């Protein structure tokens, strides 16, 4: 991936430092993450989204979902299997993971569910009344 030098933006833009930090963090996170586990991001409606992650082999108790400072983190820590096994081929990943998603302003997680090895995280963007467009009557 290309490296972007955001120094000029930090020097000359007032109040856009959060945007520059988001771009910087996104490029760093993309390099750090190895594509595991795979995920989809769906647009359900104008302000509703769903993230679906393929986490086959993980139990609900091994997955943690949290939001902090506009970042959604999904972490999986696989518990060691006490059963002695002798694999001829082991293609199912049993490693832990951490996936982070940068959330826009006013986006919050509404629900999380797991079925058939897929983790579904539902999100909604709730724009406050004060920020919604409104018509001004001319007197």
TrEMBL record:
Superkingdom, natural source: Bacteria
Matching CDD domains: ACD_IbpA-B_like
Keywords (A to Z) from UniProt: Stress response
Keyword Translocase: no
A Pfam family annotated for this UniProt entry: HSP20
Keyword Transcription regulation among UniProt keywords: no
Start and end residues of each SHSP domain: 30-139
Family (UniProt): Belongs to the small heat shock protein (HSP20) family.
Name by which UniProt lists this protein: Heat-shock protein
Source species: Amphritea opalescens
Lineage: Bacteria, Pseudomonadati, Pseudomonadota, Gammaproteobacteria, Oceanospirillales
């Amino acid at each position: 991936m290309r490296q972007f030098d955001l120094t000029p933006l930090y020097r000359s833009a007032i109040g856009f430092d959060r945007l520059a930090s988001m771009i910087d963090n996104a490029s760093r996170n993309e390099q750090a993450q190895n594509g595991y586990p795979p995920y989809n991001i769906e647009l359900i409606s104008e302000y509703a989204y769903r993230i679906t992650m393929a986490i086959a082999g993980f139990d609900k108790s091994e997955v943690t979902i949290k939001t902090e400072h506009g970042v959604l983190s999904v972490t999986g820590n696989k518990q060691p299997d006490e059963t002695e096994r002798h694999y001829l081929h082991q293609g199912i990943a049993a490693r832990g993971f951490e996936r982070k998603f940068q959330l826009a302003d006013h986006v919050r997680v509404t629900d999380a569910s797991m079925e058939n090895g897929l983790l579904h995280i539902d999100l909604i963007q709730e724009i406050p009344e004060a920020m919604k467009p409104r018509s001004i009557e001319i007197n």
